[in-house]
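Hi everyone, sorry if this is the wrong subforum. Our group has a chain we'd like a structural model of before ordering constructs, and none of us has done structure prediction before. Sequence below.
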Amino acid sequence: MGRLAWSQLRFRTARTVALLAGMLVAATAFTVLTAASQTSQLRTLGTVSASYRPSYDILVRPKGARTKLENDTRTVQPNFLSGIFGGITMGQYHQIQQIPGVQVAAPIAMVGYAMRYEELRVYLPAADYARPGRQLYRYSTTWVSAAGTSRITQPPSYLYLTPNRLSDNEDTGATSEVLASGSTMPVCVQQAGTAPADPFGVGAQSSSDCWSKVDGQPGPGGLAPGAAFVAVSWKFPMLIAAVDPDAEAELDGLNRAVRSGEYLPENAGDRIVAGPLPGSTEPVFPVLATMSSGIGEYEVTQVQRLATPSSPPDLDVAMMSRYATAPGQTVLTTMNSAQRVYEQVLGLSARKPGSIDDFAIPGYWTAGPVNYRGGSDGSLTPIQVTNPVSLWAMPSIVGAQLTPPMDEIDTQYRLLREHTGVSANVPSFPEPRLVGVFDPGRVRSFNPLSQVPLGPYEPIVAAPADAASTMALHGGDLQPNQNLGGYVGQPVQLITTLAALPALENRAQFGDGLPASDPISVIRVRVAGVTGPDAVSRERINLVAQQIALRTGLDVDIVDGSSPQPTTITLPAGQYGQPPLTLTEGWVKKGVATAILTAVDKKSVALFALILVVCMLFVANAATAAVRGRRRELGVLACLGWRPSRLFATVLAELATIGLAAGLLGAAIALPLSAALGLSAAPGRALLAVPVAIGVAVLAGAGPAWLAARARPVAAVRPAVLGVRRGRQAGGITTLALVNVARAPGRTLIGVLSLAVGIAGLTLLAAVTFAFRGAVVGTMLGNAVAVQVRGVDYIAVGATVTLGVLAVADVLFLNIRERAAEMATLRSLGWPESALARLVVTEGAVIGLAGSLVGAGLGLAATAQFTGLLPSRLFTVAAAAAAAGLLITAAAALFPAGLLRRLPAAHLLAEES
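Answer:
Right subforum, don't worry. Here is the predicted structure as tokens:
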């Protein structure tokens, strides 16, 4: 039996070489792909381990705070604090602290926006101040944000400059000019008392200032003559939050980011100090302020000189409205940024920390979360809301109306709520006292691949996602402005302690609706003993998270092993020039690291399986053809008494021998090939290719060997006679090619499937490369590790496609051999060799078309399963892969077509006769 098997291998050289080549490709690919998989696993494990742990492991929010969108997408919004003002009690916080395994529990209590009013002085040019006679100036301020695209112009204000004296009536708040005759005429009327109907109209947003070159600006706090200025009023919202100073320092090192002054003292709450009126008191609380305002806005103020008034103008609301359209000459234009105003508020430019003064808080505002509408492409569109103007009916300490920023008339996406002082006539409002200033850029930084939002002082990044948005925003991000209901919320500017909350959440002072009993908004938890993505560390986090949920009933999210996932936001156009923008935000995708480690390098595993499948199909087809070609020989052996088991073993021995040779050659070739690709392939792993090749050969050859063993001795030695069927006349080469392909359906199916497997792999990789730009997990960590397309994957796909094409060529070659007499007959009837060649190429094209279409469909299905997406551009990629498969197969068919020239026509016709 062994000698017979060796003789078959020795004297059937073409068939042996073909089988050896197919198995050699599989054996070599096995070693290379296993080396690539091991290398990828080591790299992936290193990257994931280094990027596994974010600043905290667990995020705890009030019950019901997790949105449906977060649940559906398994994400956490970057602005997870948006709209959460309280909801967790101090008791629940202490419960979490006492859970075994909790290393740090850092709470954040969001308070709200307090409005700081700050004036910037814009002095008239000296030449204008020196002009004789009366002068009237109009100045208009335009508030500019969204990288200059949004421009809101405030109703103009006025400055009246006179050479006469001015008198101020403290009872009415009116200013009068003293004429030469001694009589007086009103010139500036202060708008005080009840709130105007429109907080954004002339009555609320315009002002009139009167100056005398003789006695300056009259009234309390009046200024001496010598220069005159207009006052640009900033209504600066300052977001306040409270933290546990010790926990915050341990979590992110906030204490080490202090640049001047001191860090927040632990347990330092509010204290009572003497108020501005005799016998009055007011609470003060410590704050730590950020150096950066976080607001990307500036104002442009234009000062114009109007026609010289012949008499003192009475600058009441009606008069200011009439002057709004009067012609004027521009004498001065200035620009000031929100950062400059913020520094003036803190006194950073001229005074030391602790200089925040005259900042009593009669009330504040809270902003709700943004709700989204999902698009078919996975993008999110924020839903606009409308806030009533009654929100701005908050009185000041002295009873005057506090006006809102002009930005509040722009498009809004957050519902606002007012918490106004209920005892406005009693000057006992809380006041912040600055203890230090910190630099948010010096807060401890974490790995960007696993970064999660810290919350209180970290700005939300809304970066442009397309060329139009990049151009509109001049390459920068969309930054917050003074619009409390705007899309991008500003970061916290003032941080205080949990102990200071009673002063800010006093219901007797600020009315109902304050979270006095449950003031904490979120708690960030860091678990002890977590060293990386190992099973023990993950179990520790899971146990702590379960205990938090069981003991407190709060919403718990495990963010360990998460990574930012770019999420597209389509922001509608604003009402004041901001164009529609396409933005991207880094939403936190949970469980990314675990998913990567669980399914690391599954592309290589899939491609490895594809290669083995194609190789088995190739070997099975070739072995079946070999058995058919040896039909008489096997029948003779059966007649001589060979048992079926011996025939079965003989055929398998031949294939196993070829597999052994292919395995040894594949192991030898794979070592230098792996080294050239930068992969580490150990000799021991390379030797595994030997049993793999033998296994492929035996499994693929089991079917043909079984057919050989079933051969009936008498039938085997008789000439093969086909049953008579109804004849059909072919209408041309294409029709005849279709008939020929259908005559051997089993063999044709093997060729179709072999090519389909290769084209499916090519479609998948091409889709990943072109449609997904080389990465299919849309997170920063996923893009950095094993799910990226590598060159070795294309080598594997190339090997798979090559085997598929060889399988098709082998099918055509076998068809020509079995139909050799038929081909000779056609030639004798006058068919030229070119027509016969076209017939063979057409048969190859038919098989190639079927295999390419099936493979492209399978590739699309695999892409959709692998990525969860199937954008329309993938169909173009699939069509290109199918076209490539068709062209390659048609080209490969030229080789068996060339064998027609070697057909011994006379000999074949003689045998048939």
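For your construct planning: Residues 13-51 form the longest helix (39 residues). The CA atoms of residues 742 and 748 lie 7 Å apart.
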